[in-house]
């Protein structure tokens, strides 16, 4: 039976989301006859972790669903044995990159990738703790419908089951490697207020995330669309497109990838940096691997923590670090685009050596551009005043550290890419010591 991994990484209270994602797992198993491994990777504080354990234990029986709830202690044990089995140099460093002490959007998903390999899954389907499903005629609109219908199949065989195809016929024999959509609802609270306070400041600050060289009219369009998802129009009927999916049309709370991608290349493990977890979407597009873009968008909302002064500063730091990472990431994406089909080996799989070479080269970009970006943030945020001035002071205090990390984060990523093939291979041999033997069941099997 085909096994898939539906994963929910979390570091905050989300009992309602756990129940909702479990419903999606049951739907996927029921409608597609697959074994769904619901994987909750929990980095929450003790009280929230305890509540999550209660929520997982209370999940109703679901045929074909196996539930795994792993706190950081169990995740670390799994990673430690996997790294040891791989026999790679710098084991402690690899462990830090896989399970860092602070927030890393890439690292939490990389752990899901390795555990999916251990569980024998063919794909990973990622959701977020601050997401909800749309309703249509009273029923949840589950993205997994399009994901399971397309992933792992030859593109030519999927063409007849989507609304439309915009795929180059030359890619028809390739396997569909990605399925995704975005979110509807409130745009990013990290930047939306800047637009209200000062549209020109918004244009300059968000413009730092747009690659240089675009004509101004294109730049303005890209800036206007950034961080806004799919708007606010609710779901009414399915619309799906077989295509080379644009990363700007997909959100990481609503994406699924085949193991032929994540089994070859991890995500950047940079800490306190938004946006880096979109890396594989760019790899898929530039390697000309087919994908399905659909409209089962997830409903976006923000927790009270995100709106607090402490949460505001944390997310502004992550946004600033992303703006520092953007030129290096864009240099890699440019290299990926130039390589095109050369990114794939003779079996049609992504070549890790081609990716790591580009990542390592990007680490050496001129740091003067990074300093100029921090200067823009300092000038604009101090002019905005209030909490933004406080954020500017934080950036100034951490300036040297942020500049150093802009380079070292890419060096760390290259290191992880080089190690990834060995890690994924040895994950399969270590899972049995920490996870139950996967099985379909009339009631979900649960690991505490």
From TrEMBL:
<protein>
    <recommendedName>
        <fullName>Glycosyltransferase</fullName>
    </recommendedName>
</protein>
<dbReference type="Pfam" id="PF19787">
    <property type="entry name" value="DUF6271"/>
</dbReference>
<dbReference type="InterPro" id="IPR046238">
    <property type="entry name" value="DUF6271"/>
</dbReference>
